[in-house]
Amino acid sequence: MRVLLKITDIIDVEVLQKIQDSFSDATGFATITVDYKGNPITEYSNFSGYCTKVREDAKCLECCYRSDAHGGIESARSGKPSIYICHGGLVDLAVPIMVKGNYLGAIMSGQIRIDEEGMKKLPLGSVSELTDFSGNPELQKLYDQTMVTTLKQVHAAADLLYTIANYLVEKQMIHIMQEELHNKNLELMEEVKLRSEVEAALKEADLKALQAQINPHFLFNVLNTIGRLALLENAEKTQEMIYAFSDMMRYTLKKENTNIVTLKEEVEHVRNYLSIQKMRLGERLDYSIHIDEDAEEVMCPFMTIQPFVENAINHAIEPHAAGGKVMITGEQDGDIVTVRIIDDGKGIAPELIEKILDGNYDPEAQGNDKNTGIGINNANKRLKYYYGPEFGIKINSEVGKGTEVMIKIPRKALLGRGLNV
What we know:
kinase, Beta-Lactamase, phosphorelay sensor kinase activity, alpha+beta, transferase, EC 2.7.13.3, Bact_2-comp_sensor_kinase, 5-stranded mixed sheet, disordered C terminus
């Protein structure tokens, strides 16, 4: 098979990373996107502790690669999502990214468990038997901590990723067609200089542009349809999760070129994120949101609050069997709105707080995902950029007693944008 295009020619990797992260946040599935050779083009989202530990062994790592390769090849062969069991006993899926029959890569997801009946219906991914980790208490504990779901939900996740991949490819192919058409129009103007032909070509370009504007509605129509089907089947929690995830994606896609939003919009995005986490974690997560009505219309940088809430979930709630609490408040005092994100987790050492805010934190040295702290550092930099060096993030934390993040947002001109709010 001859590959004419690279996956990076077809899909905007930054947008794909945002969608991938939102998908992992909503479902709890680990996710990454690879090219046709199996090389990652995005960063891992929600990689499990179990799989991280398993891959420390060279032989196990080779089995992991074989399982992933099998999933990608099977999805490329069929042109449809492939769901299988890895050698470590977890369920994975591969969603192919295809253009005109050519396999460009795949979205790999999973690292979850399902019930025994569901496991019997799945093939073993390219390995003859499961690796026995029963003699390793640490691995067994990490395995027991991995997310448990149903085969039906795995199929739904695979179908959703397949829809998203097709949508992104379709959108970019239209963009490529528009660029080709535009270049032909320029050549036509230079060589022929016939007004009538130029006008006809521009009308065609206008039509393509209109189609490109309409196509983004396709994805949300699909999500809404799934939500309505869930309602008809009396699956209320599934319906709630679909609509919350749909709103999160709509927020991400609409705001990808917009740096400034209202605090109300940002908090609504966080509310959707927490409602999905609540469905996933159940009684382990207790959260509350209280924002002064007068503070809701203050303007703030896009994705200012969400990184801190996500950090609280990942480090204050997830690691503890009993879970914990997250409280978000927003209060206006004169020309300043103060947003607080408070958790009752294990807290952060003072020396780590400084490193996180300065961008010098090494998460891998602390045994954390390499993306840990990036969103926090970015939010701190953007606040200083928009409001001046005296503003930014303040983190108060005491080891063993929890963490409080304070974000001060002034009602004044944003220096980086020149917008008077």
